[in-house]
Specification:
Elements lengths: L6 E11 L11 H11 L3 E3 L5 E5 L6 H19 L4 E4 L18 H15 L6 E6 L6 H8 L3 H8 L4 E2 L2 E2 L5 H6 L14 H13 L13 E3 L5 E4 L8 H20 L9 H17 L5 E2 L6 E2 L1 H18 L5 H11 L2 H14 L4 H17 L7 H7 L1
Antiparallel strand pairs: 1-3, 1-4, 1-5, 2-3, 5-9, 6-7, 8-9, 10-11
């Protein structure tokens, strides 16, 4: 049954110097060694030496994900502490300068730097990736098309990258803006089904553009290595409970799509135009964006769009035992996304007379604390009363 869909989560982290609050350009091999030892087979390198990734085991329930990722974050923090380093989960590091970063000595990443030059060198970004399995008898592209219109909502709620190169970018998710420098990393091409994707990939391979389907880095895509649909659009989340809530809602979206007899049948060129526009609005304005929803002739606030999601997906969430997810995500709207919280901290420091660098250092301190916090459950009824 769809409510039994298994899933996995990938979190990307920045290693941060606890004194300077900067990302070290080069880390001793011992740092990588202790992190690898802390995570075992679930450790993965990233493009830069200052980044690491945890690729989770397969989960069947959200409590498993909470336990594993909470323990993984804690184990990494403990491993880094003797080096005077901390762990930071966020879409972009507020104080980082990409020019001072060193690539990871891995053939795959080295090829990316050779092929994409400054686009790759500027890609000092961390995301939250979520895999949800798709039953073998369902077409992953059709399921993807059913889910695609909702994905900018997930981006808006995850937005955590307002600062870039020590300055306010003006975007809630500058990470997604930087991602647009890459080819095949935005909204997928308009594809009807798996056969259409196979034809697209075959053309790209024959043309020498990519080596295989792994060269399609879209914001949501069928995984090359697993029988899953992979969400890639969302920013890394400092608060683990936010990451878990977003992963849970994406899983609900996929389960709902799997249950549809003609999934993706109504996805059209117009639908794709709306997804592209809403992605722009989400990355630009985050929580404050106004979204266009197909079938309605007015713009939705983020709260209204989440309410529509609950009306549409709520029964699926109930069957999966995660009906609380909508209340959890309303907390983000009430308290602000990470991008909102970072800007509040920054402005409060500036108003108190701090320099921009001092204010950004305080932002980093808050992000380090949030990354280290355990999952906190919120009473949905109390939250509803507050809204």
């Amino acid at each position: 049954m769809s409510e039994q869909l298994r899933f996995g989560i990938e979190e990307e982290y920045f290693i941060t110097d606890l004194v300077t609050r900067q990302i070290p350009g080069r880390n001793p091999s011992a740092v990588s060694d202790v992190c690898r030892a802390a995570l075992g087979q679930h450790f993965a390198c990233e493009m830069f030496q200052s980044q690491i990734e945890v690729a989770s085991p397969v989960f069947t329930g959200l409590s498993q994900a909470a336990d594993y990722l909470g323990n993984a974050r804690g184990a990494l923090q403990q491993a880094l502490q003797p080096f005077g380093l901390g762990l930071l989960s966020v879409g972009s590091h507020p104080l980082a300068d990409w020019r001072g970063q060193r690539p990871t000595a891995d053939p795959y990443f080295q090829q990316l730097f050779d092929d994409y030059q400054h686009v790759a060198r500027r890609s000092l970004l961390s995301g939250l990736h979520v895999h949800v399995e798709i039953p073998a008898d369902r077409d992953r592209i059709r399921i993807m098309n059913e889910v695609l219109p909702w994905t900018p909502l997930l981006l808006a709620l995850s937005s955590s990258s307002p600062f870039w190169q020590g300055d306010d970018s003006g975007f809630a998710s500058y990470r997604q803006t930087a991602c647009d420098e890459w080819p095949r990393m935005g909204i997928p091409e308009l594809l009807e089904d798996q056969a259409a994707l196979d034809a697209y990939v075959a053309f790209q391979v024959a043309s020498g553009v990519i080596k295989d389907a792994g060269g399609c880095w879209w914001a949501i895509r069928p995984s090359v290595h697993y029988p899953t649909l992979e969400l890639r659009m969302t920013d890394a989340c400092p608060r683990l409970e936010d990451a878990l809530s977003l992963a849970s809602l994406f899983r609900v979206m996929v389960a709902h799509a799997v249950a549809q007899p003609r999934a993706g049948a109504h996805y059209s060129a117009k639908s794709r135009w709306l997804v592209m526009e809403n992605r722009w609005r989400a990355k630009r304005s985050g929580r404050d964006a106004a979204f266009l929803v197909e079938g309605f002739d007015w713009a939705f606030t983020l709260e209204q769009w989440l309410f529509l999601a609950e009306q549409t997906l709520g029964e699926t969430a109930r069957l999966m035992g995660v009906e609380h997810v909508f209340g959890d995500l309303r907390r983000i709207i009430l308290e602000g996304t990470s991008a909102d919280r970072q800007r509040r901290v920054y402005q409060a420091c500036i108003s108190s007379g701090d320099s921009p660098e001092q204010a950004l250092s305080r932002v980093v301190d808050d992000l380090l604390m949030e990354t280290a916090q355990p999952v906190v459950r919120v009473d949905p009824k109390a939250l509803a009363a507050a809204l």
